Every structure is written in structure tokens, then in C-alpha cells.
């Protein structure tokens, strides 16, 4: 073989090899995620706080759901000012949750079950209790003096006009340095200075430390706030006083200098390169990045070289209406087409539980689950969603959430009116396991850190395990369907336009390698009927359905859903 021929031969083999590798990998694109808030999942030692050993004891339950990946909200060392999102040591478990041996055991136990494990990474800020901040704030000339965002004030005033994500003042004066530090979030969560290469290296090493222990990926906390304008310039004026859905504008400014900064994109790529140092298995990053698609989509990189996935928050604020969902998934398909993948999220530890938008109806929740598991996108289930856990009713004076304290002055009627909970305790109550004391979350004599939500007598794992048609078993069936049908986890999707079928009916096709399905979801209380095409339609799954197909007609009962397999003649 001549040199050129040999070269070509190896080039072709090499390219082919790369391609097969790409096909086999990207498991994260087709996975399903279950989010655990460790403080609230299962308490093993009777202190009323959930812990790692408790979680380990419930892994078989999680496996039984059919989800592949578990994402854990932070359990690192923390003064718990923001219940773990204020980290004082990124390499150690907080004693509330257990020890590093427990973390190792957790990673192993998850992997033993063929599942994946995702940690939460709070890169934007540390706790004020972190030794880095203690050192940084002690003087202007210590070795870590430039690890956070420090600046002189303007006379007695803060360095510039920046406001934080709550539209409150973002600068805080420290007499030790006669300077101000910046916080995108709460006052005790100082933002790190990511323009300092030492900060980057220290954090990347932490990332490598956990990847080395086998962690399969990270959820990146408020990634949209990570970089700020290098010169700390003022935010530009905007004629907008009150906050709205557009989180970028309020108090007469647009937060372009400190939120959704374009430099976040380069950092996303650097982080991707760090996790790509680890192969077999491939790892992934999912970003919490709140903002318009124009700001968050670039985080994925033009060549899929940024974050692997981003959470999409518009779905969280859904109206239970076919039209709302039709518009939104059409938008998702436009903004995140192959090879990108959307995420399908209805709630998390910062939002009202989706039950609020479902009028606490378990029937509606089944339809929503059918929707979630048959869409193109990575489904993310927040713990308790699978049993229909409700938002707790917790009085303002009893709130533990620091955000509730920030907004202490806000009258109750305004609190109720906002789309997000001012007191996030409402969605963080203990997981409901059975009908024993404290819903089986902790021992009888213990005091759970938050109260048990209403409805726990019916909405718990033991009761719903035993009930064939329960929401819990519906989730299991649907995840099973998704796991066994490539069309749902990997296939293409086409959404049926609003004029084709009755308007309360949402319909879409899924297809993979010639296998085709039609999904029909009836968001109204009345039966909806449609004429089917010439192909053969076989019902493979139904919610609230018996004889859904009569000849060429499909009848979808009120709040019912159908999955039909289409066979060409
Ligand atoms: C994210 C977390 C939230 C936390 C905040 C600050 O939004 O989801 O729970 O309070 O970041 O870290
Ligand atoms: Mg920042």
C-alpha cells in the first residue's frame, strides 16, 4: 500500500470509527431524569432531615419507576442558608446528609442498578462561610483577594447600578476591605470571579474530582449569572419598573451587564472540554439558564460543543390547555431541532409543584405524564410528581426559605398572585412513602424539617403501589413504554396543526426507523372524535380509554390520552 493509500485507508476507518462512537454514545440525549431534594427524600437516622443513607434505601423504588438518571440537589458542606445552594466545601458531604463514604456508596449503588448519577454544581457563588471568601474578604491584598467580584464604591454608593435576580441591590459593603462584593442571588452567596484563572482551575479541579469518582454529569446552578461585564459598567436604562416574565428588565434597567452575559458561552465550552476529558461513559452538563432562547440556546455551542442540555422553563408555567402545549412544543421543535434535544420539565425545588396547575387532579396528572413521556425531549421528573404530591400550605411566619424572608414585606395577595413561590418550602416537603407517621419519611418521634403536605393519605407510594390504575403505576407504564420504544426516546416528532383536529385535542406523530406512532391527548372534559387515515391504527396505550377505536374513528374520552401505532398497508 502506498503512503497516500494507507493514509486514506486510516482516515476512512478513523472517520467511520468516530461515527459509530457518536451513534453509540449521547446516552444523555435519550435518558430520563428524576430529581431528588436530599433533605426531603428519606431520613434514615431520625433527625427529621433526609440523608444519603435514606436515599440509598430507596434506590430500588427509583429503579422501579423506570428512570435512568438521578439528579441530586446539593448535599455538600453548607451552613444551609439556602439549604445547600450555599456551599462551604465542595468536596465533602454535609453532616446533615452523611459522610463522603456515603457519597461513594451512593455512586456505587446507583451504578450497580444500571442507572446514572448527576450532581448539582453551584459554580456561580459560594457561601460566605467558604474559606475562599473568608480569606478574600479579610483584606485587599491577600492571595485570594481577586477570587470574588470586589469593587470600590462610588463615594458612599455601590460601584454601579446592578440589581440581583430578585431585583434587589446586588452590592454589599465590607468594612475589612472598604469595598463592595457582588451577589447575583442572596446576600450570603458571593459571586466568584470567573475571569480569574485561579478560580477556574480550582473549580475545574472540583469538577474533575467528582468525575473521577464516577459521577455521570452535572446540573449547573444559575449558569446564566456566571459571568459579568469585565468593566462593571452600569446596566442600560429601560423604561420598565415592575418585574415580569421577562426576568431581564425591571427597576428601570435591563440587566445585560450582569445576567445572561455573552461570555457565558465561552465558559460553557471550557466546561464541556473538562467533562469531555472523561469518556467511557460519556458525561454531560445540563444548565439552569433562565432567559430567552436567544440567550440560552448559544450555551449549547454551534457545534454541540457547549452544555449538552438546558432546562426549558416555559413548560413549568403551563396552562393545562391543548393550545398552550401545541404552541410550546412547536416552538421547542423550532428552537431545539436535531441534533439538539429539549428538556421537558414541569417542576423543581424552586417552583410550585405542577399539581397547582392541574387543580390537584390525579387524572389530569396522568395525561400530563403521558404527554411528558411521549414527547421529543429529556423528561425530568421532580420527586413526588409521580404520586401527585401537592404544594404545602405553609404560613409566611413559618417559612424557612431565605427568599421568603427577603420578601417579608410582600403582602399575601401578591405572594399568591406570582407564578413562582416566594416561599419555596411549599414544593420541598418530605416525600410521602406510606400511611405511617410523617408519611414514612422519618421516625415517629422525629420532627420532619418541613411539614407533610395535604393529601398524603392517598398520595403516597404504598397506597399507589397497590392500586393498579394509580398515578404511580401510570408513570411506571409510561416510562416502560418510552424505554422500550425508540420512537419515543429517539424518534423525530411532528406536531399536528391546530386546524386539523378539534382544538382541545393535542396530537403529534413520533417516528423512528419506519416505526410510527400517533399520540392524541384530550385536554377537555368531553369526548373528542376524529377520523383516522387509511393506515391501520393499533391502540398500544390509553388513559381513561376502553374502546377508543371504532372502524376509522378514534374517540378520546374527556381527559383521556391515546397512543396509536400506525401500520401502513
Ligand atoms: C438556583 C437553585 C436555587 C438556589 C439558587 C442559588 O436557582 O435552583 O434553589 O436557591 O440557584 O444557588
Ligand atoms: Mg456570576
Q: Termini distance?
A: 51 Å
Task: List low-pLDDT spans.
Answer: 17-23
Mean pLDDT: 95
Largest sheet: 8 strands, parallel
| Order of neighbouring strands in the sheet with most strands | 13-12-9-5-2-1-15-14
- Which structural category do the helix and sheet elements fall into? alpha/beta
Estimate the global geometry from the Cα principal axes.
globular
Please, how many helices?
15
Beta-strand residue percentage: 15-25%
CA-based gyration radius? 25 Å
List the helices and strands and how they pair.
Layout lengths: L2 H22 L8 E4 L15 H6 L1 H7 L3 E4 L3 E2 L11 E5 L6 H13 L3 E6 L9 H8 L11 E2 L19 E4 L4 E4 L14 H16 L4 E4 L28 E2 L2 E2 L8 H14 L7 E4 L5 H4 L12 E2 L11 H14 L7 E3 L16 H13 L3 E5 L19 H5 L5 H6 L43 H6 L4 H14 L1 H4 L2 E4 L9 E8 L2 E8 L5 E4 L4 E8 L5 E2 L2 E4 L4 E7 L2
The structure holds alpha-D-glucopyranose and magnesium ion (MG).
Alpha-D-glucopyranose binds next to loops.
